[in-house]
Amino acid sequence: MDNEFFQKIKEEIFNAAFAKNGRCSLLIDASLKQYQSNSFLYDALKDYPLYPIIFYQDELHDALPLYLVPLDVHSIRDKELFHNSIHHALYELGAERINNGEGRSVCAWISTPLTTEQLSESISRSAVQTTQSGGDVLIRYFDPSVFGLLLPVLDGWQKQQLLRNINAWCYIDGDATAQVVNGNGESVKKLSFSLELTESNWIDLNNILVINNILRKYREINGMGKVNEQQAGRLLQPALRYFYDHFSSVGEGVNEFGLDILTAQQLFYQRGVFEQYLRNKYAANLPLYSDVKSRVGCMEWEKAFSLA
Length: 308
What we know:
The chain is α+β, with helices and mostly antiparallel strands. It contains twelve helices and eight strands.
């Protein structure tokens, strides 16, 4: 790992996480420990007090071990752990480890006026949202592969509600870029943790997993690529709605379509390239994307992909 690159990431997160009051909380997802080939981070955490995120749903009690680790800027020991957590977060982004399903244990560095116990409650209650049919669903907003793709899905009030008690939520995205999201930093206790998610929100939330799969394949081909994670989210959310309306979800079609969108860096289907080859979207069987794509002529395809 390039030392200058590492120091830049570390400095950006350090400045944001500790700026307000000299303290922050490191958020760890320990459910991934068993899948990871390197125990470096967990070895470093052995002598630290870990504050569990307490979920109020029985099925999540043991299934999702999330922990907060309070860090103080004046503690040499804490600063060393902060250094190690940045190092491990970047290590987890290795393509081979991502493809092997090792996941990402280092979720975020959080600056907040809340106590550790209050922050734990805020995360646990915000992570479980009620659907319009009345059921409870876990939204893994604390996951760094989800957080940055979730925010554009939410409206202004929903973002404010999620980040009301947060000074800064810092994480490293899938492009190994430091991201700092500023909140309101209120110390007043929330009366409700509901984001009042709409049906449209739920559709976009379900597409985040698909977007991450497409991004993983895109990075395999292009390295970090020309399209970053946030740009990909903005392109792929509307594109996936179009895909599921017009094409079969069977097989690898959605990944191929998503890669074409990222390669074109635009919603090329809006130019009507597929229209004459598509059946009615309410037909019993939607066509495979690969079949429709194979019928598009070279000239039509080049025109659709043109950025002009």
